[in-house]
Design brief:
547 residues, mainly beta, two-stranded antiparallel ribbon, 23% strand
């Protein structure tokens, strides 16, 4: 089922074909540019007929590198007049308005079609669930301008023509200046946006931002949903995440002077440089965030291995790993077929070596009653009483959230390992409803999001901690990162937000997802239970507390 974009733009008359475009950077605010008559280039006003130069799409009256057919949706899931935003996350723009397709903005269908339950019915066809012949947007005796709203069994009455909405049992005009917003909070022209249920002028100084966070006045950008001057320190970043000097802080879309603090890190030249997250440079004093370890130049997450060490980082300290009773090595690896439970290896063949999950047998836990879990192709082991996600205990496995089975992870085309991780600098891309999947470094990311480089798409400029999430639903692609209002923030480390997991949330070993969706130490007296309802020192898990 297509999902309506909240800021889709109306067809004024008969459906027109959108000009094709190629993918581009969908981040950054829209702002006008240059002379009064300048139009068509990215960041300038659309030309006559809503046209833009090759690669641009007209969204909110501004030519943007997003919003065209097959491109990532612009901010607020906005697309051009001929497309609608579909899929999860940032979404992808898909053609609308033809019979069988989603209705475009303001319930518009091409060639006199009717919008019934958000899908277009062609003129001359019977309107589904309503009855009557569709013509000029009306289902016979209802649904058109000035006609009664169409009754729908078991649902609210509907209007089926463009630019009308059901009010007091009649289909009344919507989408014009000062009029109520049409369905999907849409309005009838590029220069209008839905503000508190009414269509208001947008895009000028002090006015609300248009669809796609567009501002059409020169030197303006969208900040706090209002068009304002951009480019100076403390002001919104201009189009293309640019500033007149200093850096554009991607985490709050504001310009920062060179040498000043960004939300994460410092502005150095024209880039906010960050430290402490996995894969980033170590912070001063060779420190890393979230319980990570400094391998001399860069940080590795707790539970991962410093390069060439044969050991593992555990809560800020590099320790021996893999043997019975030792920390698990990277990717939950234990020697001699052992099982990794709550960050600790249990020996294969030893009774109750999987703690509460039973006995470890070659990378799989077998309980005293019930089916084995955690091995290749087996059901995932249950996360337990708290917020912990379901998990696997064998080496190099991740829990597939679609079927709750353990699969090999981390390689190109394979599911991402826990914590959004892929091997050898690959990128973990999240597209539509599919399980997050790894793409190799140097290969193309999905949804026209460029090349995967160092865990980030678009050549390493999106998807990493401190950057914007990538468009097209690809999201945050680096290890131990997830999206927060379109920005990528660290997750999974001590004191950090929990990462998304299968039927719960994931934290790097030896932590678990505790209160307030925050990763915390587990297993000790009075602490939260570790994944699988496990506790250390012979303690028992009761109401998610070890006693």
């Amino acid at each position: 089922m297509h999902t309506r974009t909240l800021a889709a733009i109306l067809f004024v008359a008969t459906l027109a074909l959108a000009a094709p475009g190629c993918g581009g950077d969908s981040s950054g605010n829209g702002n006008g540019d240059g002379g009064v008559n300048a139009c068509g280039a990215l960041g300038t006003a659309c030309c006559a007929g809503r046209s833009c130069d090759t690669g641009g799409a007209c969204v909110g009256g501004l030519c943007q590198a997003c919003g065209g057919p097959g491109q990532a949706c612009c901010a607020g899931r906005a697309c051009d007049a001929n497309d609608i935003c579909t899929g999860n996350g940032d979404g992808v723009c898909t053609h609308c308005g033809l019979p069988g397709e989603a209705c475009c903005g303001a319930s518009t269908c091409g060639a006199g079609g009717c919008c019934v339950n958000d899908l277009c019915t062609g003129a001359g066809s019977t309107c589904p669930i309503i009855g009557g012949m569709c013509g000029a947007g009306s289902c016979g005796t209802c649904g058109g301008a000035g006609q009664p709203c169409c009754a729908v069994a078991g649902g609210p009455a509907q209007c089926t023509a463009p630019n009308v909405a059901c009010a007091g049992g009649q289909c009344a005009a919507c989408g014009g200046p000062g009029q109520p917003c049409c369905a999907g909070d849409s309005c009838g022209s590029d220069g209008l946006t839905c503000s508190q249920g009414v269509c208001a002028q947008c895009g000028g100084p002090g006015q609300p931002c248009c669809a796609g966070r567009a501002c059409t006045g020169s030197g303006l950008a969208c900040g706090d949903n209002i068009c304002q001057q951009c480019g100076g320190p403390g002001q919104p970043c201009c189009f293309g995440s640019s500033c007149s000097a200093g850096c554009c802080d991607a985490l709050n879309d504001r310009c920062v002077a060179s040498g000043a603090a960004c939300t994460a890190g410092m502005c150095t030249g024209t880039q906010c440089t960050t430290c402490g997250a996995p894969g980033q440079a170590c912070c001063p004093g060779n420190s890393c965030n979230g319980g990570g370890c400094c391998d001399g130049t860069s940080c590795v997450a707790s539970g991962d291995a410093p390069a060439g060490s044969g050991m593992v980082c555990q809560a800020g300290t590099v320790v021996a790993c893999g043997g019975a009773g030792q920390a698990c090595c990277q990717t939950s690896t234990c020697a001699a077929g052992g099982c990794c439970v709550a960050g600790t290896c249990g020996a294969s063949g030893v009774a109750m070596s999987c703690s509460t999950l039973g006995t470890c047998n070659n990378g799989s836990c077998t309980p005293t009653a019930g089916a084995a879990c955690g091995g290749p192709g087996q059901p995932c082991c249950a996360g337990g009483q708290g917020n912990a996600s379901d998990f696997c205990v064998g080496a190099g496995l991740a829990c597939n959230p679609d079927n709750r089975q353990c699969q090999t992870c981390g390689g190109p085309g394979q599911p991402c390992c826990e914590g959004n991780s892929c091997a050898a600098g690959g990128c973990c891309q999240h597209v539509n409803n599919d399980q997050p999947t790894c793409v190799a470094a140097g290969a193309a990311c999905a949804a026209n999001q460029g090349m995967c480089t160092g865990g980030g798409c678009q050549g390493g400029t999106c998807g990493r901690v401190g950057q914007r999430s990538c468009g097209g639903g690809v999201g945050c692609t680096a290890p131990y990162s997830d999206s927060d209002n379109g920005a990528c923030r660290a997750c999974g480390g001590s004191g950090q937000r929990c990462c998304n997991g299968a039927d719960g949330d994931f934290c790097a070993a030896p932590f678990t997802c505790g209160q307030n969706n925050t990763c915390t130490t587990c297993g000790g007296a009075g602490q939260a239970c570790c994944p699988g309802n496990t506790c250390s020192g012979g303690r028992t898990c009761t109401q998610n507390r070890c006693n």
